Amino acid sequence: MNINTLTVIDNRTDATYTLPIENGAIRTMDLRQMKTSPDDFGLMGYDPAFMNTASCKSAITFIDGDKGILRYRGYPIEELAEHCSFLEVAYLLLHGELPNKTENEEWTRQITYHTMLHESIKKFMDGFAYDAHPMGILVATVGALSTFYPDARNIHDEASRRTQIYRLVAKMPTLAAFAYRHSRGLPYAYPDNDLTYTQNFLNMLFKMTEVKYRPEPALARALDVLFILHADHEQNASANVMRAVGSAHTDPYLSTAGAAAALAGPLHGGANEAVLRMLDQIGKKENIPDYIKGVKEGKYKLMGFGHRVYKNYDPRAQIIKNTAEQVFQVTGRNPKLDMALELEKIALNDDYFVKRKLYPNVDFYSGIIYQAMGFNPQMFTVLFAIPRTAGWLAQWQEMLQDGEQKISRPRQIYVGYGMRQVEQPEPGTKAKAA
Ligand code: CMC
Q1: What residue owns the CA closest to ligand 1's atom 9?
Q2: Angle at the Cα of 249 (from 246 to 251), degrees rounded to 5?
Q3: With 251 labelled, which of 107, 145, 217, 354 sits at a CA distance of 20 to 30 A?
Q4: What is the Å distance from ligand 1's center to 308 Cα?
Q5: What predicted TM-score, i.e. pTM, was given to this entire model?
């Protein structure tokens, strides 16, 4: 007997089925043959929130949540963070290999060349209220790019896809910086093509009246590392949206807007902003035990803790902790770090968190660094969306090239009313439901 099979006995019919097991999974479509009668639809799988269902095969990112391992295209995240720039990592995610010197130069040239925005995007941004959340502005404006690039609809044309990838990776920092400047009432600062990707982003955010903005190299490098850590994370909520929207053959700007909208939620990328608000709410170290008590009583969540996949320390959180020290040498120490460290110490020794395998995730420390670098909490999720765009695009491209993928369309289990009829109205009165 082939041991890579699963034998199932359907007790409703006594029928026996042998299902192949491939890559540690059965195909739920193989369940469909299990019927109680010829007109029975066949057995389905029920898995709300995809707790145990793989929606695709992917060669981009590997996570072992129990061991705390994260790799992009086989490379450990720790090595990429130490030796590579964000643009090299973005290239790796999108192309499968790190770029050689010539590839890197061409990739960097293309990204630098596409950083400008159409002037009408500025007018579009001007329409937002002065206190509009920059994440809302980003979602709207990245979607609006679709109207400027109708060629993006040629999703099956490789050359067109490549151009849209250049544009999206290049323009996200510009959109993000403009959203920030708008919320501050500051004039927009244009890209400076002499600078690296993250240096230029700092330039567009913080340039004031100086002729040439000179970013602090240590901060630009810290941002590069943070961007590398956030670039992809396999089938998370926003990547799943990117694939689902893209599976309808929607163009990549609109698909990215959908993915960014998913990222905005406090359970996903919005958690970094929520962590800062939580630390503000706790106020001082002495209040931590009371706060933990509230978490255990179910009054609130410990933001920045827990993960669907990691049941061990998130390896990104460890790298961020080290990066924090380098940033603080330039900016001075953010006092919130000490509170976060204390919170972590108490939580990791508490039975509630130990039993549930709740550890700090990527968002626990990132906000503290961003705040020290001069960002306000509203910008934190925007800072997540910029690098994650490379991951979304890699997921989108892989989905389009996967012959097994079709429009994403889950089944449901209908639990509503059976057939019923609208009560016939009396002449001269309105119809009403029975
Ligand atoms: N604080 C307190 N309890 C928690 C937390 C938390 N942060 N996270 C999970 N739990 C508890 C949860 O109440 C449940 O307890 P019980 O078994 O008694 O009902 C148990 O742990 C399992 O949690 P779950 O909700 O079934 O886990 P999930 O996989 O559905 O949720 C999560 C994962 C990330 C949404 C969740 O841990 C959470 O809400 N964390 C806080 C928000 C956060 O930090 N999000 C950032 C995630 S990392 C970056 C990203 O992917 O965007």
Answers
A1: 306
A2: 75
A3: 107
A4: 7
A5: 0.93
